[in-house]
Amino acid sequence: MKGADIVYLIALCDDEQAELRKTEQMLYSYGKKHPETDLLVTCFESVNELLRRIREEAYMPDLVLLDIYMPEKMGIEAARELRDMGNRSRIVFLTMSKEHALDAFGVDAVQYLVKPVSEAAFFSVLDRFPGSMERKNYVVLRIKGRIQRVAVDEILYCEAQGKIQCLHLLDGTQCLLRMTMKKIFDMLSGYKKFVRVGIAYIMNLEHIDNLNAQDICLYTGKRIALPRGAYRALKEQYFRYYCG
Hints:
The chain is α/β, with parallel strands linked by helices. The protein has 7 helices and 15 strands. The strands form 4 sheets. Strands 2-1-3-4-5 form a 5-stranded parallel beta sheet. It has a 5-stranded antiparallel beta sheet with strand order 10-9-8-12-11, with helices on both faces. Strand 11 (194-197) and strand 12 form a beta hairpin. Helix 2 runs parallel beside helix 3. The longest helix has 17 residues, at 17-33. It is elongated, with a radius of gyration of 22 Å. The two termini are 35 Å apart.
């Protein structure tokens, strides 16, 4: 769909080929009616293959359409594994029975559709989906042995701690990374908001409230002592970022 403004990655998982193709066709029909939204659909007949792609290849779908009754494991169980991996994809269950509807809430599913799913009901779910999913930029990192994506806007700063660096997020989370500061900055340098401050810090300029020759004050109230000689360069970068 040329000219689309928004691209969403959709994972469709169903062991029944007929159901898989039917749902895939509804997705394409929806896309034709909404040319401003590009749905990139990947089909899986195996829930284990879907989990492997997400776990090992950093595949990060925005929406997962998942059959509950799968031969390898129940869709609810697969959804729990996704959440345990730190995956926050929107999940919509497609099933022949209402039996597991309550379980769906336990894995933060956004919808539970009983087959046969009408096009009207399916389109209604997709209409709500883009509005509930603010498109964000992410970096993909290995945190505690798991591949995880982190929203760029949620990064406050990164602090050097020897061979292990600490990424501080807006919600107070601290992610320990076995990466060099250079490699982390290389991942973030495409965003003008990130700057190196001395050898110990990478700062997100958007979250700096004020600064002086002694320290940086973030909007969270956190204060960070400035390395000696770093103030002048940081001040220039700060004004350049906000004033052009």
